[in-house]
Amino acid sequence: MRRSREHVLTQVLTVAQTRAAEDELIASGISVDALMQSAGRGAGEWVRRIAAGRSVTVLCGPGNNGGDGWVIAEYMREHGNPVNVIAAREPATGAARNARALYRGEVAPAGPTLAGDVLVDCLFGSGLTRALPDDLFLLLTGLARHHPHRIAIDMPSGLDSDSGRALNDGLPDWTMTIALGAWKHAHFAMPACTAMGTLRLVDIGLAQQAGAARALCKPAIEPPAADAHKYRRGLLGIIGGAMPGAALLAAQAAQGAGAGYVKLASTTPLSAVPAALVVTTDVTSVLGDERAAALLIGPGLGRTDAASRLLTQALHVGKPTVIDADALVLLRQGMLSAAPVILTPHEGEMVALERAFSLESEGLRGHRAMALARASGAVVVFKGPDSLIASPGGEVVLSARASSWLSVAGTGDVLAGTIASRLAVHGEALRAAEEGLWLHAEAAQLCGAAFGPADLASAIRPALAECLP
Predict the structure, then answer these.
(1) What is the DSSP secondary structure assignment for residue 345, as one 8-state letter?
(2) What is the CATH code of the structural domain delimited by 8-212?
């Protein structure tokens, strides 16, 4: 029986890793021509579905991405779809020349004003490191203006595959991007991911690559055991501070994310407290509770000396802990114990942490998160439009771009509470970070447009329900 490739197909590869994976396949006896046919015909099926009988224009460059384009064009022709190919440059590789020779359809003169229904970009794909030359940039953007539906193959031309950086200003956006063989980092990175439209992947048989990042996937969450009770399901202690609303939001999210018992320590009066939420003014009753499975500190904590003492006290307990918001700014080297810890910084908090741990605040987001994870020994959830997770063990997990409606105050508190709840359930830091980040993004999708943080917290429960068997 063929082993499932689901795990392999979550890997996210650099350009160098992709080439190494392709070389492995070729060394095993699969020819470059066969790989191109597999990739091109797999992508062609997606193009055929989008085209639905409408005219297709395939823009082919000189390399193997252009060769994929010739295969796609022939696949469309075989299925009776009107198709034209524009050869922006003549094929320059053996496999691309062979694919060109197998195409039996029309080749249109190269010009930016050719109109059609669906444009397929096979100009350069992944691996490009310099800006498109002026003539090809004008050709690509002109064709994009004259085609209402646009599909990029592997990577939209003009983007850096490893960083997500735009190599030209004014590049077009795309209806769909079809990754070939494996996801690339730019599929998940800003600003590239904003222009890619729907993402699809064609499997060509690449093997798992050592050190590869992976895409965040929907978690499989089991319901409580038949004999479960509130403490066995996980007691989460939340330490509030000067701004109690933030900790209350985190507690509301935590109640929907699976913890059996949520206990909030707040020295400031609270209003509209959920009936099932236990609130106390005695911080030591939360920190000293032996039944507590995990702690959350940071949302609304403040940055005073008293807040710093609270953070030190909480970390001294040695429980699995999520550190968020103000607590991230107060954190210093030497404060963390051997207990599992999850740090959840946004960009500004990340800079503060990098300063505290003597790290450089430069480079790609994944590299920065990994450096902090290794220096701190904690799992790092680096928040933003292109959120990602890094673990001290070297794992990097990339999240698809979430709803831009999350850009409202309080949603980070909801994320912290969701992650902390999952940490209280099972105590595994990396797993809790992945589950919490996915639930948070899914809850945003369920909320739709213009939601507030309380709406988001309420949507965590139905998001979790989607993960149950």
Answers:
(1) -
(2) 3.40.50.10260
Span 359-416, pLDDT tens digits: 999 999 999 999 999 999 999 999 999 999 999 999 999 999 999 999 999 999 999 9
Domain ranges of the chain: 8-212, 230-465
Fold equal for 8-212 and 230-465: no
* Strand partners for 83: 56
Residues 447 and 467: beta-carbon distance below 8 Å: no
Angle at 191 between CA 185 and CA 194, to 5 degrees: 95
Q: How many Å apart are CA 143 and CA 293, to the nearest integer?
A: 58
CATH code of domain 230-465: 3.40.1190.20
Q: 444 and 451 in contact (C-beta within 8 Å)? A: yes
Tens digits of residue pLDDT in 1-33: 345 678 889 999 999 999 999 999 999 999 999
CB within 8 Å of 213: residues ≥ 6 apart: 11, 12, 13, 185, 366, 395, 396, 397, 398
What is the rounded CA–CA span in Å between residue 379 and residue 189? 20
